[in-house]
Amino acid sequence: MTRLLAAVTASVIALAAAPAVADTLVDNIEGIRIDEDGKIDRFTGIWIDDDGRIRQILDRGDKRPAGAEYRVDGKGQFVIPGMIDSHLHVMGLGLSALTLDLSETASLEEAQAKIAQYAADNPGRPWILGRGWNQEKWGLGRFPTAAELDAVVSDRPVWLERVDGHAGWANSRAMQQAKITAETLSPAGGRIERLAGSRQPSGIFVDAASSLIQAVVPEPTPTDRDIALLKAQQILLGMGITAAADMGTTIEDWQAYRRAGDNGSLQMRIISYAAGTEAMELIGGPGPSPWLYDDRLRLNGVKLYLDGALGSRGAWLKRDYADDPGNTGLPLQTATRLRNLMSRASLDNFQIAVHAIGDAANAEILQAVGELSESYTGDRRWRIEHAQVVDPADIAKFGEHGIIASMQPVHQTSDRLMAEQRLDEARLKGAYAWQSIRQTGSRLAFGSDAPVESANPFHGLAAAFSRTGPDGQPFGGWRPEEHVPREEALAAFSANGAYAAFAEGRFGRLVPGERADFLIVDRDIMLAPPGDLRDTQVRQTWVGGQLAFSNESR
Amino acid sequence: MTRLLAAVTASVIALAAAPAVADTLVDNIEGIRIDEDGKIDRFTGIWIDDDGRIRQILDRGDKRPAGAEYRVDGKGQFVIPGMIDSHLHVMGLGLSALTLDLSETASLEEAQAKIAQYAADNPGRPWILGRGWNQEKWGLGRFPTAAELDAVVSDRPVWLERVDGHAGWANSRAMQQAKITAETLSPAGGRIERLAGSRQPSGIFVDAASSLIQAVVPEPTPTDRDIALLKAQQILLGMGITAAADMGTTIEDWQAYRRAGDNGSLQMRIISYAAGTEAMELIGGPGPSPWLYDDRLRLNGVKLYLDGALGSRGAWLKRDYADDPGNTGLPLQTATRLRNLMSRASLDNFQIAVHAIGDAANAEILQAVGELSESYTGDRRWRIEHAQVVDPADIAKFGEHGIIASMQPVHQTSDRLMAEQRLDEARLKGAYAWQSIRQTGSRLAFGSDAPVESANPFHGLAAAFSRTGPDGQPFGGWRPEEHVPREEALAAFSANGAYAAFAEGRFGRLVPGERADFLIVDRDIMLAPPGDLRDTQVRQTWVGGQLAFSNESR
Question: Which domain of life is it from (chains A, B) (predicted)?
Fold first, then answer.
């Protein structure tokens, strides 16, 4: 067993030792919730039944039940609903967290030491994988070399992505496995770096050349996935996320989720959207799965892609990129194929979640939903994922057919400078337009897109109502008219997320009959200024009336 | 909904209406069981706890519990353990049972009428599939034609296998979909029949030519599999089989089993052996699955193939076939690959079940088990599936390393005339050598290989102790020294099947603590002569203390 596995397992054993579900009273708390009417309500106690569902929300004056088997003194701490992340990648987050992180290294020597240590700690890993290096930060004045990696790991292939993901650093073993020699030509859109005065590859592969190495990196094993799922749960529960929509579940991912459910180590709730219609049919069969493991797992539907991202100019725009005349990006599906895939899934009552970033992509999916809604009536909850750049002329259509806008507030603060380059003023009006979309009647479901961004929901909440980044910039907020009031942002990270996943009535609100998913946090999230809110610490995370994370236990 | 689906569903609803598990006393029965010491024991009552496990086996004089919630009067009927079939194909059985069976038709006209009726009953089926026709039996003096099929079904493709599986009959739609024209050439090893005096395909495809049509027959949908599983359960529970080893589970099969488990319609127990190591890893991940759904489903390991069958001379023999000089059959795996696959599975503690029919195949797997046992110690329960023809010099090796001989008694009675042609006297000594193998200390686990043979375990029991077929031939039994006494045959169809599946202590015996899986049958199976035993009728089948089948309810 690697140290990593041992550490993750030890942590899970600690969690498993949490009290089993019992008729429980969590009392003496400063509770904040969205009540049955969608309003913010303050309360002081939660009475949980022995199925882990909320029996009663208690106000200061309410009589406490005499018979609760188990009592928790909240010591006046703040309690809020468990956060629901409506768009992330569970397995991607876990696998990425298990690789070596070099982003904090300040020199090549420090990086080499860290790589050597990681290799020693993980003798069973056939490849050493990592990310985050930056030769500029190291003051190296050049790329590092394969020889500098060989000096610390020569028994196994090593492959480390640069901080921006646009280059990779391989050792000689990795290049051997990929059959890279002096004769190997750089592929279109990429470059194999060479040693000075030679054809010999230096170990650095830029852009499309990365795929030459990537192609021989082994797929994660089932055990890798099991460990990654434990790791992802540890991260997410520690940040206060009790439920997450997994965008792009493969059959291998699903089997890992089921293994965790079967052996009792699935603590958080995962709502799956299959990676395409084939995975959907293989996972769900003739329709969405039932809710499994006390509402901890369900296959709801399918994730489809209509375009790429703004940063790489893969987003599909109606007009040229402002900083790249002649380029509008591209749709990843033809109109016919998109509708065929949506039809196939809808016919069997799978929910549809379509990635659309550019204004052309958003216009196209809005149009397609309009057309399909004629055939596929009823409560479909069509989801548009990201809805990042929408032509202001199209925004009103979000209010039709019960469309859900699944958006990630942190993308706005991370991407705004890049977006200002890619788009002109007129199009920026429809970018990250949370409030305009909300006002059409569309329901907002917020998420993080982790591991692309941090999964921390308090970063998302702060961005949502302030439109400012961690540095407080820009002063007053970027296009502040699109901000979402604090209580609406909280709903978008909880009750709306449940609704977007057909889970209302099961979890997402602190109301009687729903699962008792809640957090004990160290501050009043309704009053903390944005900078403070970002630093919110989760002290305990409860899922279904059971303690699933406690920062005191670490 | 097709009538077929409606019929199957109605039957399942009827079963679901059976009483839920309660503390139950089944009394006034003539019970027959294998007791804790492996001896036949007679008893008169079963007391079942509310988990569906046996609390007590009661003899005539024993005091009856006063508090049982639910009492069943057995009215003096015979009760025996639920039968365990250690080798069959659950999904193959169900899918095959859902196709059109023409084996009872006596004329082309009768077959046409039956085909038309089936098409009308199944408007939603995109293809009409069937089997069992025989133009000789019809007195037709020629093959039937596509036109004769078109006359009854022209809106959809039709594809019907001949009774021997060596030819298929297609209608014009099926040929169109397969792009068969007058120009299509017959493939090697096959023949496209042509209309007299023409190149026009007649609709009959012989041997390898069948694959031209087979290639365009659609894969079963998830709904097809769900219906097939219900159908297979109906058949098996109706025959008294309460648990079965599924030999060659695909991920699609597994997902159907899980769907049934999740929605409560998995009534019988299925022990899965994955169709190869890739399916094994996808289904089980890092190791065998846990026992799921109250011991109703588990992935135990992997099914591997080492050779083919005797009938088609695919079985791998040490010397030439007696009726085909120069041909020894072929191994389907090299020695190295076999050991690699076995190693890969054993490393992760999956159980190995290897198909071996010919004496060379059996020698090879016995040798491989011997080698692997040095590395993979502990309780492995290596399974050899079929073990049909074993060199008498090799039989002793079955007693080593805890090898389990998973054999199908009915193959002996069905195949004996064919075996006598394929093999010479010396080799026949080691054919279907149940008793010789048992005497080495190897445990016998009996099954049917359904749908290749009928799953009826009473046919298997009768064959096992009589070595005679349904016609009572040959008088005195074929090589009767290899017969298995009745009580040992019963154990091979129950307790040994559980042991072969690592399920002892869970089910397989009527002893306290095990699941209450038992049958009410219409005769004393320990006394009935072979012909009578074959006709045993199952009146009720109970699985885990719940009534899962009753022939009175139909």
Answer: Bacteria
